[in-house]
Amino acid sequence: MATVHLRIGDLVWGKLGRYPPWPGKVVSPPKDLKKPRGKKCHFVKFFGTEDHAWIKVEQLKPYHAHKEEMIKINKGKRFQQAVDAVEDFLKKAKGKEQNPEGKGDSKGKKTPNKPLKILEEDDEDLSALKDPSEKPASSMEPISKRLKIIEEDTGSTSIQAADSTAINGSITPTDKRIGFLGLGLMGSGIVSNLLKMGHLVTVWNRTAEKCDLFIQEGARLGRTPAEVASTCDITFSCVSDPKAARDLVLGPSGVLQGIRPGKCYVEMSTVDPETITELSQVITLRGGRFLEAPVAGSQQLSNDGMLVIVAAGDRTVYEDCSSCFQAMGKTSFFLGEAGNAARMMLILNMVQGSFMATIAEGLTLAQATGQSQQTFLDILCQGQMASTFVDQKCQNILQGNFKPDYYLKHIQKDLRLAISMGDMANHPTPMAAAANEVYKRAKALDQSDNDISAVYRAYIH
C-alpha cells in the first residue's frame, strides 16, 4: 500500500490507544523525549485536549483526505468542537497568508487561554484550541459511539468519559450496579471501557490476579460468580465456550445461586443456541431476567470500545444495558427471542473464519507459484476486498506476528458450532467444513493460542 509521508506541521487524524481517530498536528517532540525504538511514528499534538503522543505511521491519516469519513463515524460534541477548532485554525492561517502585515504575530493570534503543554515555536494558534472552561484530560475521551436497534432508528449518541455524562445530555451511565465475569481478550477491554464511562463494576475472573488492574481502576472484587450476581443488578459474562458458560452459571458458587427476582444476567460469550436456551430457562425460573449479547470484533476493537453487539432475549434488559453497550460498542442490534443472537454470531464468525483461511491459502499459493506475497496484498488492498481486517491480518502473517487478537482455537470452535447448526437445519456448509479442517490442522501444529491468522501455518507445514 502507498506510504503516506508526513512532515512537521501536517494536520492528521491520529488513533491513540483504544480511542477513536482524533484530529491533531504533527509537531516536534521535546528534546528530552526520545522516539520509541523500532517504530516508525510521528509526535502528534491532539486538538482540543491536553494530549500528545508518539503515534505509529499506520495509525495516522492526512486530515483533509479523510475528513468526511471521520465526521461520518464520529458524532460527539467534543469531537465536533475539535474539528471546529481545526477549521478555525485553518481559516486563521489562510487569513495570515492574505494579510501578511502582522509579522509580529505571523503564525496566528494568541489568546489569553491557558497554553497547551507542548507547543512548537510556530504553533501559537494551538493555544486557542482548548476551551478554558474545560477540565484538563489525562487521556482522550472515547467519543464516537452509536446505539442502533434493528427494529427502530434511535439516532446517534455519545458519552463523555470525563464526567461520565452523555455529551448530548440524553444518556448517562446507568446507576445500576454492574457485574462482569471473565477478563479474557474481550472482557478486559469491555470492563476497562465500562469503568472509563463511570459505571460501577464488580469483577470476577477464574484467575484472580487478572482482576488486580481493574481494582486499581476503580472496580470492586467479587469473590465468586454467585456473590457478583447477588450484589449486582446486571451481571455480564464473557467466557471461552459453551462448557465454560454453563459451568459459570450451574457450577459450585455459580451465578444461579446468586440470582434473585429482578436480577439480570447477560451472556456475552459466543456459544450455541441450545446453551443459550438452557441458561435462559434456568435464570428465568429463578425470577431473573436474561439477555444474550455476544460481540463481533477483536481484542483491539474491544479495547477501542468499537465492538458490535448482537443481542436477543428480554428487551427490557437490553434497554437497561443501553449505557453499557454504548461504552463497549459502536453499534448494537436487538434480534428478538433468545437464541437468535447466538445463531447470528455463529454465522458471522463462520464467514470470518472461512475468509481468513482463504486469504491464508492465497498468500501461500502466491509464494508457491513464485509470486510476491507483498504484491498480492498490495493489489488485494486496492480492490473491492480491501479492508482493515485483510490488511492487518496479512501484514501480521508477512511479519510472522501471530500475537492473539482473536484466538485461533475460538474461531475453530465457532466454525464447529456453525457446522452443527447447519446440520440441525439440514443446510449445507461445505465451505465452513473445509475451513474447519484447516483450523484443526493448525491446532495440531500448536497454534491454538495464537491469532486466527496463524491458520497460515497449516498451509506451510
Largest sheet: 9 strands, mixed
The helical percent reads 25-40%
Low-confidence stretches: 102-171
Shape descriptor: globular
The end-to-end span amounts to 29 Å
Q: Which structural category do the helix and sheet elements fall into?
A: alpha/beta
Number of H/I helices: 16
* Number of E strands: 17
Rg on CA atoms, Å: 24 Å
> What would the average pLDDT be, to the nearest integer?
83
**Content of β-strand:** 5-15%
Report on the architecture of this protein.
With about 450 residues, the protein is α/β, with parallel strands linked by helices. About 40% of the residues lie in helices and about 15% in strands. It has 16 helices and 17 strands. The chain has helices spanning about 65-75, 75-100, 185-195, 210-215, 225-230, 240-250, 275-285, 300-305, 315-320, 320-330, 340-370, 375-380, 390-400, 410-425, 430-445, 455-460, and strands at about 10-15, 20-25, 40-45, 50-55, 60, 145, 155-160, 165, 180, 200-205, 220, 235, 265, 290, 295, 305-315, 330-335. Strands 9, 10, 11, 12, 13, 14, 15, 16 and 17 form a nine-stranded mixed sheet that branches. A five-stranded antiparallel sheet has the order 4-3-2-1-5, with helices on one face. Strands 6-7-8 form a three-stranded antiparallel sheet, with helices on one face. Strand 1 and strand 2 (about 20-25) form a beta hairpin. Helix 12 (about 375-380) runs antiparallel to helix 13. The longest helix is centred in the C-terminal third of the chain and has 29 residues, at about 340-370. The protein is globular.
